[in-house]
Structures are given as C-alpha cells and as structure tokens.
Amino acid sequence: MARCVGVEPCTVVMDLEGTDGRERGEDDTAFEKQSSLFALAISDIVLINMWCHDIGREQAANKPLLKTVFQVMMRLFSPRKTTLLFVIRDKTRTPLEHLEPVLREDIQKIWNSVPKPEAHKDTPLSEFFNVEVTALPSFEEKEEQFREQVQQLRQRFANSIAPGGLAGDRRGVVPASGFLFSSQQIWKIIRENKDLDLPAHKVMVATVRCDEIANERFGCLTSDAEWLDLENDVQAGSVLGFGKKLGSIVEVHMEEYDKEAVYFDEAVRKAKRQLLESRILNLVQPAFQKNLSHLRTKALEKFKTGLDQSLESGKGFAASVRETTESSLSEFNQGCADSVIKQADWDYSKILEKVRRDIEDHALSVRESKLTELTNHAKEKLRKALVEPVESLFDAAGQTTWASIESLYKRETQAILPEVFKALSGFEMGSEFSEEMVSKLRDYGQSIVENKAKEEASKILMHMKERFTVVFSHDKDSMPRTWTGKEDVRAIAKEARSAALKLLSVLAVIRWDDKPDRIENILISTLLDGSVASMSSSASSGDPLASTSWEEVHPKHTLITPAQCKSVWKQFQSETEFTITQAVSTQQAHRRGNGRLPPPWALVAMAVLGFDEIMMLLRNPIYVFLLFVGYLLVRALAVQLDIGREFQNGMKAWVSMLLKSVVPNI
C-alpha cells in the first residue's frame, strides 16, 4: 500500500495478489475472495486487470468471484458508489467499442443472477458500482504505446473526487483519522463470513475444459455428415426409423464427450454433460418436429383416402369414420413412437391432438357435404314431383284445387321420407336431427307450392282470359261453339265470367287447411252480380273489396288482395268485352244470311206462273242438263269468291267485290 506521487487529491493505492496467483496454492481461494471484497468495501476505485481473451469466458473472466463478492457485499454493507475500472490488457485488433458492451452485459448478468436481500431486491447495479472500461496494448509488442496510454490512464485519477470524477459519489466517506479502525472492522466482518469459501481452482479448470470439450463435440455434431443427411431427408418427407438413426448419432457424440472429460471433476463433468445434451436436443428437436409434421400430413391423407373408399363401398358414414380414424391414428402413433430417441422424453401428445382435430374437421366437412348432397337430392326429387302436378291443378282450378294440392303434397312428401331415413341411418345422427331434416323437407315442399301459387297469381289476368275463352268458345262437349243465333250469349258470357271468377278466388289466397272461407261468394256477389246484389249490403257495411286483406286469412297467405281482385276484374271485363260483342255480331249476321230466301207466297206464285217453262224443261232433257251445268259453275264461283260472306256486308260491298274479282279475269 502506498501513496500516489503527483496525483491530487491524496490517493492511496493498495495492490492485491491476483485471483489466479500461485502464492497460496490452488485450494486456498477463500483469501483471494476476502481480499477482493475488502478492496471493494474500502476503496473508491477498484482496478480489475483482465486479459483481452478472457472476455466472454465464464471462469477466466472472474465471473464466479464477482458473483460471490456482489452477493456478500450487499448483505454486509450499505450501498456506496464504488467505481469498477476494468483494464483490458494485451488488447487485440477488436475495437474497444465492441469489447465494452460485451463486458458490461456480462457484469449486468452477474448482478441480475445474484440472490439479493429483501432490502436490495430491486436495487440496480448503478447504486453500488460505477463501471468503467479501458484497454492497454501489449507491453512486449508495443512498449512505447503501452507507456503512453498508461500515462493517460494516470491522468484520469487527477481530481478524481470532483463532480463527474472517477471516484464516484463519495457516499459514506471515512475521515483519515478513522480509516485504520474502519478498515480493521471491515476486515473482521469479512473474515467471519463463511460464504466466501468458494470452490477450489481445479473446479474452475474442470469447468473451463469441460466447456471446451462440450463445444467441440457440439461443433462436430453440427458438421456430422450423417446428421446433415438425416436433416435433409426429413425436410423432404417422413423418415422411416428416424428415432433409431438420430439416437445413434447423439449417442456417438455423447460417448466422445465422456471419453475426453473422464479425468475432470465429476460434478462439473456431469453438469456440463447435461448442458451439452440439452444443446444437442435443442438442435435436433426441429427435425423431430418436422418428421412429426410429415406423419401428421400422411395420417390425414390416409384418413381421407380410406374414408372415400369406405363410402364408395356402401358402408355407413359413421362406421366408415370410426374405422378409418382408428386405422390412421394407429399408424400415426406408431410413426411417433418410431421417431422418439431414448436420450429425450419428447412428448407428442399435442400433435396427436392436432391430428385428431384434423381428422374430426375433415370428417365434419365431408359429413356436411354428404348431408347437403342428400338434402339437395331429396329437394330436387320433391320439386320434380310437385311442380308440374301443381301447375296442372292450378290450370284446372276449381273448388277442390287446394284440397288436391294438399293431398299431393302429403303423398309426395311421405313417399320420399323412407329413402331419406335410410340414407340418414348411416350417419347415426339421432332422431332429433332426422326430425329436423324431415321438417325442413316439409317446409321446402310447402315453399314449392307457395312459390308456384305466387307465380300463377302474378299471371292471373292471362289465366282468367284463357278460362273465359275456353268456356265461352266451346260447348259442354269441348267442341268449338257455332253462333247460329239460337244461343243465349248473355248466359254463356255470365257462365264464362263465373268460371274466370272462380279461378280468381282459387288463386287469391293460399289454403293449407280445410277451413272454408267466403272469398268466392264475396267475389261473385260483388263483381259478377254487380251492384244489384251489393247495393243493399254496401249501404250498411261498405265495399267488401275495399281492403288489403281477407277476413280470417293470414297476410302471408294472401296472394291477391281484395283491392287487387277488383282491379283485375275491371281489366278482365274490358279485355273480354270484344269477344262477347263479336259473338253477338256473328249471330246477327247469321240471321241476316238465313233471311235471303223469298217468302212462301212468292214461291207459290213462281210455281203457278212458270208451270209452262217447267214442263218445257222436263220434256227437253238437254235444257235440264245445261241448266244443271250452269248451276255447278255458278256454285263453284260463289264458293271460290265467298260471295255469301261478302253479301252479308251489303249489296254495294258484294257488287264491288264481284267487279274486282270477275272483270280482271275477263
């Protein structure tokens, strides 16, 4: 211990033997730890001499020493800002700005790993120490530069207690008169503390050497050709016997470690072996996971293929899923067991659960697809069975139309159910699902009928005119009606309009029950009978068709509202009026055509007065023949020119037509 010459303020230097000195033997490590702690406790600045190549090494860089000293110092002494000046000797070409962060990080890690008393549990490193780092070149290689930088380092100690100086915050400073007593008490406390009895030097040597051997074996494994081939193979697909091959590779390198580390401290050797084994397992585990990933994909593909084949063979869906799932999971479990190595207790239960979920998801997807296909097939079959018959029933609409439609709907729906139940039995879904599906089919059947009814209702005017034309223009035997003048056009028109009105009443609402309604009566009394029947009732109750809904009919079942019925009927009347007028005109023309013969008295007069001419014709057959030929010629001409029809339009029209037809021919 000595005072520094030429350094102000007064600075005392205490030189301690190195932590790896040979003066006290390899086992006497307690004193060096005690002296180090003593220096930290009484000094404002502690210079720690460190070889550049020791940075980053566990033992050679004094990490165990610092860890223990930090721990004891926090327990024995209160915080005081001591400056730790790390002097890196024999500096290499590596810049200091690269070495300093590594060293600071190591110091911080040591501080964080030290168990701290409750009082200093959250105390940062900066509360106890101010870490500084400097570097010196090799004395033997660069003596002049070395001396120059040492002189610069010496200058840093000038005014070290000034604010921002090297001596820290100077808390807990002891006066010079009490320094001796204070130092004695500190040394006494340190000597009585047994926590500074640390492992011997041979343990440190074993630690360093076993680390080197472990690193060498790990490096050999990473470049092992057999391991690299196995790693490449597993990237391409699952490897048969993966666990046996990988376990053999790991075992070879672990045995090599055991051979080289057998003569070092047993506890250290085993600890480092565990670390090496952990590093190797961390290295090879991604390949294990990759192999399991391939097995997972393979199991899912096997399930998909097996399920498709089983379903194609006609086996039930649920039974096919059970058998295929069992087969796929069994193969996957076998592959996983084959991939595990004896050196590790790797658990593949999580990926097994993922495989189960994959299979369940695919089975659910296929089931939904099959059920959708089954439902669509049943719906299409039901649609074909209902659409055309319903359309035909609406075309021939009458009082029993909706009863017939309901009967058809029930019959066709019931007919399709056995096929549906048979198909559903293979899914083993339970009665509730079957009932739900049957309910959906029934609803679909009703929607077909209702949509068809809405479609026909949207064309009600056209249907009414067709119905009117059929009844008005054809007789009871469905033969075209000839208007000879004997028919009652008014009665026939009323009958035809009544038939059209009944069609309107059928398509006005949807009737899914046998409950009677008054729609037909209301329409006939209001529209067909006209104001004669409705005037008395309208006086008290108003127009029954002046509404947007029918009595006792749900709005969703209304196809044509009362107001719409009234509007349609008015348009229907205007568009069929011409047909009735034409029939009346035809009757009148027919009557005029039948009235062209002369009266009976004229015929008698013609016979009496023309008796001589008649007898002459009878006595001369040639005249009769010529007269007959002339009749045939006139008859043929009349038929060709349709003289009868033209004559119905008047004499002038007939003469005009005759001139246009005969004169050009002449």
TrEMBL record:
- Residues annotated as transmembrane: 622-643
Q: Biological process GO annotation list?
A: endoplasmic reticulum membrane fusion
A GO cellular component term found in this entry reads:
endoplasmic reticulum
What Pfam families does this protein map onto? RHD3_GTPase, Sey1_3HB
Q: Which GO terms describe its molecular function?
A: GTP binding; GTPase activity
InterPro entries named in the record: G_GB1_RHD3_dom, P-loop_NTPase, RHD3/Sey1, Sey1/RHD3-like_3HB
Per UniProt, the keywords (alphabetical) are: Coiled coil, Endoplasmic reticulum, GTP-binding, Hydrolase, Membrane, Nucleotide-binding, Transmembrane, Transmembrane helix
Q: Which SUPFAM superfamilies match?
A: P-loop containing nucleoside triphosphate hydrolases
Q: What PROSITE patterns does the record point to?
A: G_GB1_RHD3
Q: Which residues form the GB1/RHD3-type G domain?
A: 1-170
- PANTHER family from the xrefs? PROTEIN ROOT HAIR DEFECTIVE 3 HOMOLOG 2, PROTEIN SEY1
To which protein family does this belong? Belongs to the TRAFAC class dynamin-like GTPase superfamily. GB1/RHD3 GTPase family.
Q: What is this protein called?
A: GB1/RHD3-type G domain-containing protein
Q: Which organism is it from?
A: Aegilops tauschii subsp. strangulata
State the taxonomy lineage: Eukaryota, Viridiplantae, Streptophyta, Embryophyta, Tracheophyta
